[in-house]
Amino acid sequence: MKLESVAYGVSAPEAAQWDRFVRGHARAHVLQLSAWGALKARFGWDAKIITLTRNDQIVAGALVLMKDLPARLARMAYVPMGGYALDDDFYPQLWKAIRQETGAAFLKLEPGHFPPDETPNLAAMGFVPSPQSIQPPNTIQIDISCDEETILKRMNQGTRRKIRKSQSGELQYSEGGKDDLAAFCRLLKQTGDRNAFGVHSAAYFEAVHELLIPEQGALLMAWRGEALLAALMVFALGDNAWYFYGASSREHNKQQASYGLQWRAIQWAKARGCRCYDMWGIPDYDEATLEAEFKTRRDGLWGVYGFKRGWGGEVRRSVGAWDLPYYRIVYRAYRAAVRFRQR
Fold this sequence. Notes:
Blueprint lengths: L8 E3 L3 H9 L10 H8 L4 E9 L2 E12 L6 E6 L3 E2 L5 H12 L3 E5 L17 E2 L8 E6 L4 H7 L2 H10 L5 E5 L4 H15 L6 H10 L1 H4 E8 L2 E11 L2 E9 L3 H4 L1 H15 L4 E3 L8 H7 L8 H7 L5 E4 L4 E4 L2 H14 L2
Parallel strand pairs: 4-6, 12-13
Antiparallel strand pairs: 1-2, 2-3, 3-4, 3-5, 6-15, 7-15, 8-13, 8-14, 9-10, 10-11, 11-12
Helix pairs in contact: 2-7, 5-10
């Protein structure tokens, strides 16, 4: 049924109503929950849930994040890992509603993963491939719908050996609480300094723990006595779990703490009923290039690919980032600025 043939309204629903809609969608993602919007709203973004409704029921919608462009000449609207619609015919009207409700110069959309035969034709809706992504488009996804023995068999020999080493009894594993956040943040900063990547502030992770961990995630930690050797945050929604944040000490390799902890995270996801474990972020190349270069590259996400490749998952690229220009003059200036920064 075409959207134009029915009456619909644009609304900003209550968080609980929106979250129920997200949870019921086949592509449900934690980055579309109202709690993610509340998190980002504390750290430089504005957040708004925009939906199309029919007979008081949501038929399409998105959690939209908004941020001013440099010099505050205009705003960008951004939809991470969404939006959602009960029928593809609703999508064009959803993009129009986002324009009306945000006043943005353009919409950046990162819709995530679709089954091969269900990917919407974004180009036909006016989108163009974006020169700039926010979430990593390439990842490794592990099928965890089978038993643990099968999951282990799919891993490479080195990963299985390191998991066994991590279970030797020298390490203690725990699910961390609020009081453990300071130790997690210290370890994350050490990891970032050692590997030359930026990390969020302690205040950010305090907000993550407050808004997301109780319902959707866990802080998992590996200790040797009083020493924290590795820690990670894992999140789950519907069939999927995601490994977003991880940290390790220089001593973690001796006991293979990171491997033991990652295995605990997979077990946690299975206990939640998840069928897919997403390692979240590898270099944006095809698998042949990844395999040919990972031993010699350490820049960007290359340093983590060597760890993630051994877990028996499949390299999968999302739809990527797409932009829908609402005001083309502003959008052309944005693209020119991105090209200049990338030189």
